[in-house]
What does this fold into?
Amino acid sequence: MLSQPYVLKLFTEVAAILDGHFLLSSGLHSEKYLQCARVLQYPGPAERLCADLAERFRQDGLVPDVILAPALGGILVAYAVASAMVRMGPYGHLRNLFAEREGGVLGLRRGFEIFPGERVIVVEDVITTGGSTRETITLARAHGGQVIAVGALVDRGACAAFDVPTHSLLRLDFRNFKPEECPQCRARNPLVKPGSRTPA
It folds into this structure.
């Protein structure tokens, strides 16, 4: 298993941990932002991280039918985790899917389907408040899927909130603020929205 210091070193080496005044997709503000895409752009580290997450699921004895992620940040993670699990075997039937927003609602598009009774693992690059992860879990269950685990490369503090086994490779306790309580807002520092989705 990869150690937390090793995973943190991978993120630090590519300047994936940013300092500033950031608007998160939850609508909260933070003085720190984790840009996982800076690590995932490199196939070597991306495959190592996702293979480690896949190994944690395998050691739990989990046999999923689907690895599901919310777009956009989780797409590469879902593919790489599923690919690693297929290489480990016996997961030859495994599919990786991603959910997309249309009109603000998360759904399955592009002919993707989750069939009743299929075992689903939901994965993300970063879980901050857990909002998009919970939406993805709800979506899988609405299609009759049985969510058996959640995984993320990085947990910013919300992974304990889920009702299924959860794994993350790195825990970072960055503080989040409501806009009216944000020290960066009080200092009138410019607000940046670095994420891939419009805040709630």
Remarks:
- The CA atoms of residues 58 and 85 lie 8 Å apart.
- The mean pLDDT is 93.
- The two ends are 35 Å apart (CA to CA).
